[in-house]
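We treat protein structure as text, and this decision shapes the records that our systems exchange. The remainder of this section carries one protein's record, kept here as part of the documentation:
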Amino acid sequence: MDSFSNPSSGGSSRQMSAQELQNQLKSQLALEYAQQFLETVRGKCFEKCITKPGSSLSGSESSCISRCVDRYIEATGIISKALFSGQQ
């Protein structure tokens, strides 16, 4: 069995089609991107907005986090559009 064989096929020699492999890679990349995005936003917004960590968020901390996440998502969208429009 080579590196392109489907490990979930119970040991059969069925090969993954190129489309199946591409779909699996896309899913894995999307999951990794989402995890990295959340980790980055969590770190940056926490550092910026939470001045005195406690058992709950104050109203201003909650508002700050909400705005921070919104701006980060907006900025990421602008950057993505610029990158992808330049490739076409």
